[in-house]
Amino acid sequence: xxxxxxxxxxxxxxxxxxxxxxxxxxxxxxxxxxxxxxxxxxxxxxxxxxxxxxxxxxxxxxxxxxxxxxxxxxxxxxxxxxxxxxxxxxxxxxxxxxxxxxxxxxxxxxxxxxxxxxxxxxxxxx
Amino acid sequence: xxxxxxxxxxxxxxxxxxxxxxxxxxxxxxxxxxxxxxxxxxxxxxxxxxxxxxxxxxxxxxxxxxxxxxxxxxxxxxxxxxxxxxxxxxxxxxxxxxxxxxxxxxxxxxxxxxxxxxxxxxxxxxxxxxxxxxxxxxxxxxxxxxxxxxxxxxxxxxxxxxxxxxxxxxxxxxxxxxx
Lengths: 126, 179
Description:
By secondary structure, chain A is mostly helical. Chain A has one domain. Chain A has five helices and no strands. Chain A has helices spanning 2-31, 34-51, 54-76, 79-100, 108-125. The longest helix of chain A is centred in the first third of the chain and has 30 residues, at 2-31. Helix content of chain B is 72%, strand content 0%. The radius of gyration of chain B is 21 Å and the shape is globular. The chains are: A mainly alpha, B mainly alpha.
């Protein structure tokens, strides 16, 4: 029962955070290079530019939800189990979403590294 | 450019790993959360460890957004995975959790994966872009928008899109070889 509770929290965390990541990535591509904006308008300029992007706010809501799932999951399991387990699944989920929703060029190098990271993270759970 | 990549990778990884460990430390103080007393979770915001953890995660978020503004999601994500390597080290030293040989093997694999992707190109070439990724950031917003519309047009007639993708791929390869 306890592990079912833990994995449900992790599952919700994974879906919310990969959806949030994809939205953030799309929003940041619309905004442009943050370093340049900061040089021109300062930190406040960056914050106001980022906050005025609707897609960013939507992505942020997803990430806030996933953060509460993370807090809950951390109180039920070890940090060295919860963090890697959710990371590996988020990683696969986001890579697939980035390929099909953001049309990113996920080449052999990136798939190979995705596989390495996933296997590595699975080993972390052992 | 190379320095910028390495710096942002380190910033993302360090802030992420440290933040997670601080949060775990704080949640240990707080005790287990029961579903019928779930409002107990708001007590988390007065715990100093959790506040410190949130500060670290805020630093992580800023560097993450900066990286996403000039690089692909699939390029930035391994940097966040590298944070879990740091989590493993800190959990061992700071939280005194046992980290088995399997976990160290996992840490090694993640490090290899991160190293692999970090050496590649950081941004997908859009058909509208002719210059190398990262060098044309001065025209960032306009090109990004132009790139989006080109892709939509391209996907309308699949053959063109496939051709454009092929040329983008070979261009990426060339650039990598040059680098």
